[in-house]
Write a structure and sequence with these properties.
This protein is mainly beta. Strand 2, helix 2 and strand 3 form a beta-alpha-beta unit. Helices cover 8% and strands 50% of the residues.
Amino acid sequence: MKKNIIFIGILCILTLVVAVSGCINQSFTNNTTKLSGIIVNPGQSIQSAIDTAPVGSNIIVNPGTYSQKLTINKNVTLIANGTVNLGAVSISGTGATIKGFTLTDDYPIQLTNSNSVNILNNTIHSNLNGISDTGTNTNILVSGNNIIGTCSTYGNGMAFEGVTSNSQIKDNSVSGTQHGILFDVASTNNLISGNSVIGDNGDQAGIYTILGSTNFQILNNKVSNERDGIAIQPLGSGTASGFKVDGNICTGNHNAIWMTVSNSVFSNNQLNRNQEGIDITGTGNIIKSNTITNNKVVGIALTTQQSTDGNTVINNTLSGNGGNYYTAGPGNVVGE
C-alpha cells in the first residue's frame, strides 16, 4: 500500500513538471472548438516552436507581445489564443495558416512562392503593404482580416506583386491605405468577394488588376472614396477577359467601375454618387441589371476601338446622372 502511495505521488510531481515546462503539446478551447497543439507563452520563442513542430501541427500562442519576425515554410497552423501582438511573418512553401493575430510592421505578412496558405482573421496595421506576395502563389485564402493603413500616400492594403492564381480574397476590411486590394502582375482565376474598401484621399484604386489578367470574379464588395473603385489599370500588356463583376456597391468614387476588358459580364451592381458609373473600353461585354444613380458625369460610358467591337447593355436602371449614356468609337451597342 505504501509503495502505491509513493508511486502516485511521483506521478503527480512529473505531471506538474511537464505542465509548467516550455513549448509542449496541450489543448485549449477556442470558440467551443477544442484544439490540441504546441503552446507558446510570453518570453518563449514562436520561431523555435515553428522550426521544431511536426508537419501538420497547431502552434497556439498565448496572449502577449512577441517582438519577433517569423518565417514559416511548412504546413503548420499558427493560432492566437486571445490578443497576441506580432511584428511580421514571412510565409513560403505549402500549407501554412496564420490566424487571429495583431501585426504591426511595414510588411506584416509576406508570401513568396507559396501554395494553399490561409491568412485568417488578423488585424494588421502597416505603413506599407499589409499583405503582399512575390513569386508564384496559388490557392491562397485571405479572409476576415482588418487592415488599417497608417500612411495613405503610399501604403497598400494588399499588394499581390507576384503571379497569383486560383485564390480567394474575401470578407476583409481595408481602410486608410493608398490602394486597397491590388494585383500588380497579370493573374488568373481569382475570387474577390465581400470585401469593404474605404479610401482615404480619393486619388487611388480600391480593387484593381492589370492588362493580361483573366477570369476574375469580383463579387459583392463595397468600395468608396477612391479614384477608381473597381478597375483594370492600363498597365502591362495583353487583353483582360472573362471577368464577372456582380453585386458590388460603389459610392463616392471618381470612376465606380473603370476597365479595358473583353468578354466580361457586369451585373447587379449599385453605383451611386460617383463621377462616372461604368466606364468600359472593349468588346463582347454584357452590362445588365445594374442600378446606376446620381453619378455626376455619366451613368454608362462605352468606348470601342474597331468596327467589329460590340457590347450589350440591357435592363439597367439609370436616373439622376449627368448623362445616362456616352459611347465613342466605331463599334456598336446592342440594347438600351
